[in-house]
Amino acid sequence: MSTDYRTGQEGEFTYRGHTLDELQGMDDEELVELLPARMRRTMTRGLSAEHRKLREEAREADPEETANDPIRTHLRDMPILPEFVGLTFSVHTGQAFERVEIEEEMIGHYLGEFQLTRTSVEHGQAGIGATRSSKFVPLK
Questions:
Q1: pLDDT in tens, 24-33
Q2: Per the CB 3.0–4.6 Å rule, which of 32, 86, 106, 117 could disulfide with 63?
């Protein structure tokens, strides 16, 4: 169960007024009309061969299987479609593959949005020799 953000009531998930079952039953032409503009353009121009291959692999996959052995992909620009809900993907961040479990609220986004490619930098204290002024720090 998720919260309906328009009314603030807890209930069944809807994406632009359609339930998940309705979305999964739609063909591509009907689904494209509900997607945001950039994704709609991607879908109407046609998915690339790699994107189509990933989509077929996701259609054949079982949610229980992908929980243990996720679908690995470099395709961060793959639109998240209703048929992906419940599956687990390993999305490449540029250094490693990180797990992404697809939930209902992720429909209408891209896979790469849920795995950051940059990490936050946490600086420590400057050590001896780090700067010119640290030469003059008295040593105990």
A1: 999 999 999 9
A2: 86
